[in-house]
Amino acid sequence: MSDFEKRVLDLVRRIPRGRVTTYGHLARAAGSPSAARMVGYILNRQKFNPAIPAHRVVNRRGELTGRWHFETPDLMRRLLENEGVPVQDNRIPDFMQYLWIPPMPE
DNA sequence: CTACTGACTCAAT
DNA sequence: GATTGAGCCAGTA
């Protein structure tokens, strides 16, 4: 498991309940600004790890692009709504309001 | 070894 | 706005 992967997973674990962040922000904070695709890939391998709240990671427009990788396509939406994050048409309306920006390394 | 594929993003058009 | 092309890099065939 690469350092990048470990950093990404560590950051995902820190996303507060009821907040979301994006693949791009995670990639940047983990030290590889253009590796947004890798973030989704990493989450896919960890999707059975209950310690990783992967449903709190959306793309930069607030779309639930990862929903097809959950057990059922509506699970991601249900988990978010359970935390108070509204989802409409596979997207979080006014999603900037819920955005959590991961801490950047020095 | 090469080729293709993504839970993505950005800049240019 | 929409579309296109490129960068990213681990995994798979």
Structure description:
The chain has helices spanning 3-13, 23-29, 36-45, 75-82, and strands at 21-22, 57-58. The chain has 106 residues and is mainly alpha-helical. It has one domain (3-97): Orthogonal Bundle (Arc Repressor Mutant, subunit A). It has a two-stranded parallel sheet. The longest helix has 11 residues, at 3-13. It is globular, with a radius of gyration of 13 Å. It starts with a helix and ends in a 24-residue tail after the last helix. The mean pLDDT is 93. The structure holds a DNA duplex (13 and 13 nucleotides).
Keywords for this entry:
2 strands; Arc Repressor Mutant, subunit A; 34% helix; 106 residues; mainly alpha; 4 helices; two-stranded parallel ribbon; DNA-binding
Compact description:
With 106 residues, this protein is mainly alpha-helical.
Shape: globular
Query: Ends: how far apart?
Result: 23 Å
Radius of gyration based on Cα positions: 13 Å
Instruction: Please give the CATH class.
Output: Mainly Alpha
Kindly estimate the percentage of residues that lie in beta strands according to DSSP: under 5%
CATH architecture: Orthogonal Bundle
For CATH, the homologous superfamily is named as Winged helix-like DNA-binding domain superfamily/Winged helix DNA-binding domain
CATH third-level topology: Arc Repressor Mutant, subunit A
Average of the residue pLDDT scores: 93
